Amino acid sequence: MKKNILIGVTSGIAAYKVLELIKLLKNEGYEIFVIMTKGATKMVSLQDFERASGNKVYVNLFEKNFDYRKVLDKRKVEHIELADKADVMVIAPATANIIGKLAYGIADDFLTTTALAMTTPIIICPSMNVNMWGNPIVQENLAKLKSVGYQIIEPSSGMLACGYEGVGRLENVEIINKEINKLLERNDSLKNKKIIVTAGGTTEKIDEVRFITNRSSGKMGVALAEECYLRGADVLLLRAKNSVSPRYLIKEKIFETAEELLQLIKVNINDTDVFFQTAAVSDFKVEKPIKGKLSSDNSVNLKLVPQIKIVDKIKKLSPKTTLIAFKAEYGLSEKKLINEGRKKLKESNTDFVIANDISQSDRGFESDDNEVYIILKNENVKKIPLASKREIAKKIVEFVV
Q1: For the segment 168-212, what is each residue's pLDDT rounded down to a tens digit?
Q2: Helix axes of 258-268 and 310-317: crossing angle, nearest 10 degrees
Q3: What is the domain class of 4-184 according to CATH?
Q4: Cα distance between residue 90 and residue 104, in whole Å
Q5: Which residue among 162, 175, 209, 304 is the active-site one?
Q6: In the annotation, is 228 catalytic?
Q7: pLDDT of residue 163
Q8: What is the pLDDT of residues 121-161, one digit of tens each?
């Protein structure tokens, strides 16, 4: 059955780029419906969007000769009908104005009334001046929308139409197209499965100001949580305070130290079907953290002691849970990396170990890409070649879950 995509176009200068997005979506067989704000029609002609979509473009909440009696007689309201038939709504470009309106439930035109009537996902694709993007009011409004389930595809950085350079450009339409497809490909393959994913690096106090940590960004763990969420799982993301955030409205709890992470695991692991131990837990902590703030006038000797091995405790806490543990190594050959993964498989009683090398700048810690080896108990190994962490997450979930 053909899926329907509703696209809201607002009066950002990037409105013309949405014509290419519609072309991409049409080529993939989707039915496209477009709503334009009155300001958007000053940027790009309504006729251009009608030709691109092949359907009527909606602008005015009240057409000429509007008669409420016809509505009462037919029980049909256009913006409600559009909201009901759409499988997803995409607002691109999304100005600061439309973001603010939606954040506060303002419905004063065709686009906002339709958006507030939607019961299926809404994707927001902001585009604006770099200073507007950085305005705390705009960021607060975006956070509010995200907290109730809107997906935000953040703008990219570059030269802006206003002459400024910085973050604010509408994200590449090919990337937006992929995100729309990913959302529409949601399935129920993991429905009724309880899954916990840990993400990011722990921090351990040196004093009340300083701490030791690692370079983990949390991107791999968050990508796994998102992939499980898109497959209908009941996902809990245990996320480090400084890690990246998920794009979707996934349940999450925040930790800083390894001890805090362990306590969150103990409280939440009951009845968990699958556990992804992706977080980079510090191997060491300061034996005796200093109270107050260390003086920088004198040298200091810190004694580091081994940290608790959280991954070794998970099967003891919940023996029936399928445990997938990550093993990061630095600069090892493929053979040695796999051998280290096999050692971890036995030591921690995991069901799978996913090993990766973090010595290269184009993969692993902080990078958007990764290359991993899935190591099984039967000695088999599956290599997933270098790809985006989102693609790696998809292949891991397909293979181990």
Answers
A1: 999 999 999 999 998 888 888 899 999 999 999 999 998 888 899
A2: 10
A3: alpha beta
A4: 18
A5: 162
A6: no
A7: 83
A8: 899 999 999 999 999 999 999 999 988 889 999 999 988 88
∠ CA 102-14-79, rounded to 5°: 40
- DSSP labels, 57-105: EE--SS-TT--HHHHHHHT--HHHHHHHH-SEEEEEEE-HHHHHHHHTT
* CA angle 183–4–193, rounded 5-degree value: 30
Query: CA separation (Å) from 232 to 29, 84, 196, 265, 335?
Result: 24, 22, 13, 22, 36
Q: pTM for this structure? A: 0.74
Give pLDDT tens digits for 306-334: 988 999 999 999 999 999 999 988 888 98
Report the alpha-carbon distance of residue 142 to residue 222 in Å, rounded: 19
**DSSP code for 279:** S
Q: What is the CATH number of domain 194-400?
A: 3.40.50.10300
Domains in the chain: boundaries: 4-184, 194-400
Give dist(CA 356, CA 238) in Å, integer. Answer: 21
